Task: inverse folding
């Protein structure tokens, strides 16, 4: 299925009244404000800020892929003022589809190359290995999306995505892992596996510039992982240049006494 670029939505003159650039400038500050209102507000703010450029955009459910897609941002790649007011941002997607069906990878793990930029960037860039580099300290919000294509090969319907943030020296700094199952119908292990989309949304506080973000996937059956900005996206948005409150990557289980105390009121 092709991608329709609606050029009528891209103004010839960037200063034209109420064009795409104007709408994004007006809404960009809403992204930062939304971050204090929880993830629901974050997504709402991001959606509002990009509504003038992307319809049925990168983080829309894959089931909506048949709907018209407009992306005027492709023609404005160097307009770094599109998201005026934010101290850092980048949007990347995979420039090719990635496969495990040839059996070259014994454990069905693949690194997802987010090697193509969508729109402008500021204080972040894509390196030669298809990783996003966060070139500024502070609080960043990462949003990652991958799409596992349906397959009839044997194996399980499980699929997994792991997002890793590494320090400039390559050492691991933060990890986020998300899982799905794509079994169709009865769920019998030999049943054909359907398609599925994995999302990962999390904040991370970067304390030194040059940290990288890489994405790895695993699938229980041979299948393809789809690229293009309809099916793949890695977005990084820096909300603040502060590095306080880095958080805890894992936390302990609650105790029985703590649970009993809550149950007793």
Result:
């Amino acid at each position: 299925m092709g991608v329709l670029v609606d050029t009528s939505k891209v103004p010839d003159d960037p200063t034209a009244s109420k064009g795409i650039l104007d709408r994004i400038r007006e809404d960009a500050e809403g992204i930062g404000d939304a971050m204090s209102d929880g993830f629901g507000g974050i997504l709402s703010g991001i959606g509002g800020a990009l509504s003038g450029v992307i319809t049925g955009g990168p983080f829309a459910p894959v089931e909506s892929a048949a709907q018209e897609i407009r992306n005027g941002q492709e023609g404005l790649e160097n307009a770094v003022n599109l998201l005026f007011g934010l101290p850092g941002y980048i949007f990347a997607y995979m420039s090719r589809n990635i496969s495990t069906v040839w059996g070259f990878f014994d454990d069905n793990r693949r690194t997802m190359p987010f090697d193509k930029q969508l729109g402008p960037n500021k204080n972040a860039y894509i390196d030669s290995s298809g990783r996003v580099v966060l070139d500024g300290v502070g609080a960043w919000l990462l949003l990652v999306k991958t799409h596992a294509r349906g397959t009839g090969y044997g194996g399980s319907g499980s699929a997994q995505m792991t997002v890793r943030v590494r320090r400039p020296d390559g050492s691991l700094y933060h990890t986020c892992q998300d899982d799905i199952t794509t079994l169709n119908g009865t769920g019998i292990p030999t049943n054909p596996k359907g398609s599925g989309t994995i999302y990962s949304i999390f904040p991370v506080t970067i304390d030194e510039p040059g940290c990288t973000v890489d994405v790895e996937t695993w699938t229980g059956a041979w299948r393809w992982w789809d690229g293009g900005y309809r099916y793949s996206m890695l977005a990084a948005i820096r909300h603040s240049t502060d590095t306080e409150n880095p958080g805890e990557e894992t936390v302990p289980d609650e105790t029985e006494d703590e649970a009993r105390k809550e149950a007793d009121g």
